[in-house]
Design a protein that fits this description.
This protein has eleven helices and five strands; from the N terminus they run H-E-H-E-H-E-H-E-H-E-H-H-H-H-H-H. The protein is α/β, with parallel strands linked by helices.
Amino acid sequence: MSTIFSTVHAHAKQTARPVRVLVVDDHQLFRIGLRRLLEEEGFAVIDAGSAETGLRRSADRLPDVVVLGINHPAASRCDEISRVLEAAPQAGVLVLALVRDEGHVVEAVRAGAVGYLLKDAELERIVAGIGDVAAGRSPLSPAVGRILIDRVRHSHEPDSGSLASELSERERAVLSLLASGCDNAQIGDRLYVSRSTVKNHVASVLEKLHVDNRVQAAIYAVRAGLV
């Protein structure tokens, strides 16, 4: 897993301390298992069954990333996102949801969550997502990304898409698949190229569109009528 976390380790090196993570989840076994895995990867972790308890425990070392577990469809907990950001405004909130709920995805993002993954993802993907949040990126499960893109499609008029003219034919294909909810592996399979090649194409797309992450690029694609 060392390659996955190279960015996180670089971030920790720059700040001269481990990335601080608060794991909030009322499922004790999952919470403790994730904490131990993160600690093995060099993160400084505090875990708790509620955001209130977790923030109290981490008062003397505010977290860089807060992982908020959602285990019941009816449990919105978006108010917890607001409380977390009020107490630790520098933290990035990553939601880990047991089931996909379109309304909650939108509510969580509006409340300030910068990432949203489903618990059925591989543990490596979840830990990598925590690293993404620490590095300033926005990790989303493909299905979650699709929910947000569909919401944008139905609530905004298309833009002119002038920046899209700077993209190569292959970059436009990558952007279209990205906006459709595909991850790098799926894009590589569709286009018959390696994951590293896809990663390079995605980086070029972000630069040419003047956006910071995949979500913003996907939203641009929808508004520009590219998908």
